[in-house]
Amino acid sequence: MIKVESVTKRYGPNTAVNNISFEVERGEIVGFLGPNGAGKTTTMRILTGFLPPTSGTASVGGFDVQESPIEVKRRIGYLPEAPPLYPEMEVGAYLRFVAGIKGIPSKEIGRRVDCALRRTSSESVRDTLVGKLSKGFRQRVGLAQALIHNPEVLVLDEPTSGLDPKQIIEVRRLIRSLAGEHTIILSTHILPEVSETCGRVIIINEGRIEASDTPENLTAQLQGATTIMLDVEGPEEGVRERLLDEPGVRQAVRQGGGDGRVTWRVEGEKDERLPRRLAAAVVGSGWGLYSMQPVGLSLEDIFLKLTSDEEAGSPDAGPVEEQAEAGSEEESAAGDGQAEET
After folding, report:
1. What is 224-295+308-341's CATH superfamily?
2. Buried-most residue among 18, 51, 250, 255 (CB within 10 A)?
3. Which string of DSSP letters, residue by residue, matches 279-325?
4. DSSP state of 178
5. CB–CB of 95/144 below 8 Å?
6. CB–CB of 205/311 below 8 Å?
7. Local confidence band at 158 (pLDDT 50, 70, 90 cut-offs)
8. pLDDT tens digit sequence for 100-110
């Protein structure tokens, strides 16, 4: 459904996006994850046809974003970080206006507006001025305008930016409800956003894609060691020494405990048999083994592992896209002005 091949975007001497390639299948929700200034928004703007790539190609539904921009726009619903709202309009009137711009036939507009309001749980603010809406409802109405023409693809740029915790939960739930019916690419720098809404994650850093897979598969690929938590009843020093005696164990660190039981974090070489050997060592020594649980990398661990070294070595990486975005904001203002004139 979405295909990006060797896309690069430069602003003068600065490279905001550097030779990236990825695909998103029909019905997927994919999280585009990266620190601020990594190239996420620039990529979103290229996909929606707002910015041309310096080189490479991008297509949506089989249509090239440069060769067939109108066909691409018909298939995309776009929610930028700042929703394109008119504060002086009532919500219902605004959505009817958007529906007309998007070419929905007049006889269909009322039904589409009703549907968009219902799907975003915004019926209660139909007659409210946009300028009087809470931040949460502004995001909902922004999503409603992206959905109103029932697009095949939704491109959501930082969809929960600036929301309070309750509003964030509501918007995430709404996005998850759209899975399957729409292909969704969601850009964010917030880790829980990806883990709670997306089936796959694309990690971008300094304009380059560092990884693309499910969080589970990324964990398996990056986990260079076996980490196990054990809850053991036994003499502390004796347990520590016995655990460290087991071949392949690098360290055994006390995590807490009480009443004769201690929780140990054991790290060792990657070995599927290590948990079984540790259990046998504890039980064979006559101690109580109350629990044992393998520990995988969290999404935060994966993100830091893939981005921290490069960020440390490239202190100017973040401002590259910030400078690029400043330039593109000027283009955005110009584009918005043209849109209003037409």
Report:
1. ACT domain (3.30.70.260)
2. 51
3. HHHHHHTT-EEEEEEEEPPPHHHHHHHHHHHHHHH-TTHHHHHHHHH
4. T
5. yes
6. yes
7. confident
8. 999 999 999 99
